[in-house]
Amino acid sequence: MQALQILTNHYQKNITADKNLSYIISEFNQNQPITPNKEIIVPLKSLNPGGLYPEGYLTIPILCYHQFGKTGSKDKMIVSEEMFDKQMVYLKENNYNVITLREFFDFVNYKRRPPKNSIVITIDDGWKNVKTIAASILKKYGFKATLFVYTDLIKPSKITLTWDDIKEMLNDGVIEVQSHTRFHTDLSKTKDNESETAYKQRIEQEIGESQKIIEQRLGIRPTLLAYPFGTFNDAAIEILKKYQYEGAFTVIKGGNPFFHNNFSLNRSMVFNSEKIEDFIKLLETFKKE
Q: I need a labelling partner for 255 at 20 to 30 A (CA). Which of 15, 107, 197, 264 fits?
């Protein structure tokens, strides 16, 4: 693998000197090991960026977590520490590639195909147990998750993350941060007695102010958003584009081929369960035609 990384850095500077692109060389050479005096083909362009094949096409599942607990819980949104660890072990032992949302967007924007069996891990809201439970497990297996925070939740508290907590996890390399709005209100419909004008002002505040706060606190300008409750409409998309967001995510179960709409991307909720089989069902990475 080290030899592949050196080749990647040397020959693929026109793409990026990213050692994680070594899979492109490996796959092009039928995953044969590099040995002395062996000829190696080095493609200088990303091949088949959309992952289309005669028998079907690649699709990338995006997992959506919310909270984690030390033990089992009756709350389906709280995944136990033991089960989360088992799930990450399953991904590691079965050769799944956990990629970042930037790598995912290179795929859906038809720039570069990620490794086969790629998935994305996301976590919503901003609860303290992301740091106290999930972060160490992600680090143990070398995985990175995207944390979608709604900024009004982030404050000094025993149960919620602080901005310092988030900075620590960013520095540790276990998370990236994107927006989940400011107050976590439904963007898809008006509230009781809310005028159309007031509604548009509210969703602009949810989208625009959360972006501004995250940039002020972390020096990161979010370009992706997870819709609260997974719901959206054309008005929300229009405002997202106004603030130069590149895409947004629902909680509609299923994977994402490269041709999926960037503002209605699927994510599969991971609920508390004692069965690893329930988790495995969410991991389809190829759609047969």
A: 15
Which residue is listed with tokens 């995985």? Answer: 143
Phi, psi of 240 (to 5 degrees): -55, -45
List the chain domain ranges: 2-47, 56-288
* Residue 160 DSSP symbol: B
Cα dist from 152 to 34, 104, 162, whole Å: 52, 28, 11
Residues 6+ apart with CB under 8 A from 212: none
Express each pLDDT in 13-40 by its tens digit: 444 445 455 665 666 555 666 666 666 6
pLDDT single digits (tens) 265-281:
999 999 999 899 999 99
**Angle separating helix axes 196-218 and 163-172, nearest 10 degrees:** 60
Report residue 127 as tokens.
């609860």
Average pLDDT, rounded, for the chain? 91
Single-letter amino acid code for the residue at 166 = I
Which pTM was predicted?
A: 0.88
